[in-house]
Amino acid sequence: MHTIVAFGFVLSAATTAVTAQDLLSNAKDQYAAAAYEDALATLTRVEQASPDVARQVEQYRVFCLFALGRTAEAETSAEEFMRSQPLARLDDASPRIEAMFLAVRKRLLPSLIRAEYRTARSALDEKNFPKGEPHLIQTRKMLAAAQEAGAWDEGLADLSVLVDGFIELGRRAAPAPAEAPPQPAAPVATPREADSRPRAEAPVAVAIYTTGDEGVVPPVVIDQTLPSLPSALRGIMRLARPTGLLDVLVDETGTVQASEIRQSTHPSYDALLLNASRGWKYRPATKDGTPVRFRKRILISVTGE
């Protein structure tokens, strides 16, 4: 009895898969015969399809809507398809449909890339590189697609450098150091002591933005000249070829307010970098057209050449 039930389940699943493929084939034939309404109706009957069949179903739904002149609906469906599968390629699309998909891709990819990067950064901020690495790799693939589609800008170029740097550093990173022992608690002031202390207004925090923040245009480099490598370090750097990370805080005027080494190349060159960065100049970052503070991360690659 149990064997019969199990066999019946497998048979049912196989039948469903075949039916989905058959319906897709029928819809393709109807589309080729210019029976677009019939093809749409057939596509709505596809259920429990494999990922590949489901992808083709969504594509042909867009094709049919576009062929019927329902352009707005076609673009909406194309956007939904792009959000779920930003790297998918079209099958047998006409030049006009290709052009429509390209326009949708150019419009959506920058925001999709930044959303994927924010997911990766969230994991990296938790010191969980294995969790963040797949999102970094997906971000890198989407950046390549954006460049191919002509959706490239300086913000995405900066993001590309960061993604490559995080991937390289994460794979080379040593295990996280042990947590520092807890510090003794500070003595608690008595009510009289607390009352006698002068009170000051709490400083107002100024927002600092980073690459990937929604609606923020990163700063544009005016002068970001790296210091020359001293001859004494060239042999060492040529062998080690270190990669470092430098954070600079660019204020609303485009001036570097502060800089910090996040990943060292060499102590001597780190000092030169910090000193040089104080004179760098940028066109400031903006949010909704207003200059804002921005923390820019720069990947430093030293070859020793």
Short description:
The chain has 305 residues and is an alpha+beta fold. The chain has helices at residues 2-32, 36-43, 51-67, 71-84, 95-125, 129-149, 154-172, 191-196, 231-240, 267-277, and strands at 208-210, 216-217, 220-223, 243-250, 256-263, 281-283, 285-287, 290-301.
3D architecture notes:
The protein has helices at residues 2-32, 36-43, 51-67, 71-84, 95-125, 129-149, 154-172, 191-196, 231-240, 267-277; strands at residues 208-210, 216-217, 220-223, 243-250, 256-263, 281-283, 285-287, 290-301. The longest helix is centred in the first third of the chain and has 31 residues, at 2-32. With 305 residues, the chain is an alpha+beta fold. Helix content is 55%, strand content 14%. The model is unreliable at 1-17 (pLDDT under 50).
Fraction of helical residues: 55-70%
The CATH topology label of the largest domain is Serine Threonine Protein Phosphatase 5, Tetratricopeptide repeat
Strand segment tally: 8
Return the domain count. 2
Class computed from helices, strands and strand pairing: alpha+beta
Order of helices and strands: HHHHHHHHEEEHEEHEEE
What is the mean pLDDT? 82
CATH class group of the largest domain: Mainly Alpha
Strand content: 5-15%
What's the gyration radius in Å? 28 Å
| Major β-sheet profile | 6 strands, mixed
Q: In whole angstroms, how far apart are the ends?
A: 76 Å
Write the CATH architecture name of the largest domain.
Alpha Horseshoe
Tally of individual helices:
10
CA-based shape = elongated
Give the uncertain stretches in residue-range form.
1-17
